[in-house]
Design a protein that fits this description.
This protein has 466 residues and is mainly α. The protein has a domain of 99 residues: Tetratricopeptide repeat domain (Serine Threonine Protein Phosphatase 5, Tetratricopeptide repeat, Alpha Horseshoe). The chain contains 28 helices and no strands. It is elongated and about 105 Å long.
């Protein structure tokens, strides 16, 4: 009876492993050794690969291919100098072997000399009859160099060689996304799908591009086709749920998220999305149920703790909100937005010292949002540190020099300390930037808004603007 192809391919491996268990020595063709070594390398069994190389070279000491596999292992284990010495000797024997240039390129890549690696890979490309793998390696080198245009072209060539090469397809789309060429990605994927209409991976990626462009109906259609192509494709159900959320179809979104849970072990991310949908539907108890399931499933998922925090914060249960934001900060204390949320909660609780510290942490970690500067300045005022509040606003002004809100607030604080000269300058600047926001000044500083001093400044600015 004829053997199946996978049985044939496993025969040398089974024979080799049988030999290792005994004291017998079996003979293998050099090609069989190559297959055995590739099998072990592809499965991460480096020790067995090295043993096969050693025995293979004992039986076939002149085999350049086996010696090149030995070099590959040396490069993998960072024995770069020894690998280069081996390659020098091999190049004398066979100067037109593209694998020599590929391994030299790998060595340069390991040394972070990606430009030299590209030169060598192009030499290998000129010598190679089968250039698929070389284009893939070139694509990775271009990614290391942040040359996403050339990386994209290399991975496109890989896909043109093998349209089932989904790894390269993902890399093509990654390059499009990094270059923010979403229309280009959509065109490329539609062209690909004309040739491969039942490729769930391509439909899934197309849906993501439409989602990025807020073309939600088109995204929904793409995910539906992904599911038609493979009704077990969990990622398509999950992404479809996100689209339905954006469209306000929360019940349908929940249904899709629940499908992912039924098909595979539940994930914290699915629980989190279901919780948010229930909250949108005002199903508070169900929202809490799924939020708590989120953090139970993955206690290190800071977004889960943040969701619970926001849930209680929106319901003005600030004490519980503080408890849960501290949970999030214990997991990710470098997250500037969590510190800002912590500051807002402490402000609501009247804990202004803690709020001041949290705002400081948020800014130091890179949160330079306008609301952060304004909120922090208000906290400084509550702490009776008006000079500090003015300094905070001056820092914010560096990021938002055209902000009338900062100028109006600064003017009010300067009036608080009777700095009339600077208050006048700040108020005039604010009125020139956005006269309509004078109401913000009136709301926060009513004790000054109706004074003749302020009214005179306002009327002068009005006259000059006519």
């Amino acid at each position: 009876m004829a053997l199946e192809s996978n049985e044939k391919s496993n025969q040398p491996i089974n024979k080799f492993e049988s030999m290792l268990k005994t004291d017998d020595v079996y003979f293998f063709d050099a090609e069989d050794f190559e297959d055995i070594i590739h099998h072990y390398l592809n499965n991460g069994k480096i020790a067995l690969a090295k043993k096969a190389i050693k025995i293979g070279l004992q039986q076939h000491p002149a085999s350049i291919e086996l010696k090149l596999l030995e070099v590959e292992v040396l490069v993998f284990e960072n024995h770069l100098d020894l690998a280069e010495n081996y390659l020098d000797a091999l190049q004398v024997l066979d100067s037109t072997n593209e694998e020599i240039f590929i391994q030299r390129a790998n060595i340069y890549s390991k040394k972070d000399n990606h430009e030299a690696a590209v030169v060598l890979l192009n030499k290998a490309l000129a010598l190679s009859e089968n250039s698929f793998d070389i284009h893939s390696l070139l694509g990775m080198e271009y990614l290391f160099m942040d040359d996403f245009k050339l990386a994209k072209e290399s991975f496109m060539r890989c896909v043109s060689f093998d349209e089932q090469d989904y790894s390269s397809l993902y890399n093509v789309i990654y390059c499009f996304e990094f270059l923010e060429e979403y229309d280009g990605a959509i065109h490329y994927l539609n062209d690909y799908l004309d040739r491969n209409p039942y490729c769930e991976v391509a439909w899934h990626q197309l849906g993501k591009q439409y989602f990025t462009k807020k073309m939600y109906s088109e995204a929904l259609t793409a995910y539906d086709f992904a599911i038609i192509s493979d009704d077990t494709f969990i990622g398509a159900y999950f992404e479809k749920g996100k689209v339905l959320e954006k469209m306000g179809k929360y019940k349908d979104a929940i249904e899709n998220y629940e499908t992912t849970i039924q098909m595979e072990d539940p994930t914290s991310h699915a629980y989190l999305r279901i919780g948010k949908c229930h909250e949108k539907l005002d199903n508070d108890e169900m929202a809490k149920y799924y939020y708590y399931h989120t953090v139970h499933e993955d206690p290190l998922l800071d977004k889960g703790w943040l969701a619970i925090t926001d849930f209680y914060y929106r319901r003005k249960n600030h004490q519980k909100a503080l408890y849960y934001i501290n949970k999030a900060l214990n997991i990710d204390g470098e997250n500037s937005h969590y510190w800002k949320k912590c500051a807002q909660i402490n402000t609501a609780l009247g804990k202004f010292d803690q709020a001041d510290f949290a705002y400081k942490q948020s800014v130091e970690l890179g949160n330079y949002e306008l609301r952060t500067w304004l909120g922090w300045a208000d906290v400084a005022l509550r702490n009776q540190d008006i000079p500090g509040a003015i300094h905070i606003l001056s820092q914010g002004l560096e990021f938002y020099p055209e902000s009338a809100e900062i100028k109006f607030k600064t003017a009010g604080f300067q009036l608080e300390i009777n700095d009339l000269i600077n208050a006048r300058i700040s108020l005039i600047d604010a009125l020139k930037l956005d006269f309509a926001k004078l109401q913000l000044f009136s709301d926060q500083f009513p004790q000054y808004a109706d004074t003749d001093w302020v009214k005179n400044i306002v009327s002068k600015v009005v006259r000059r603007s006519r």
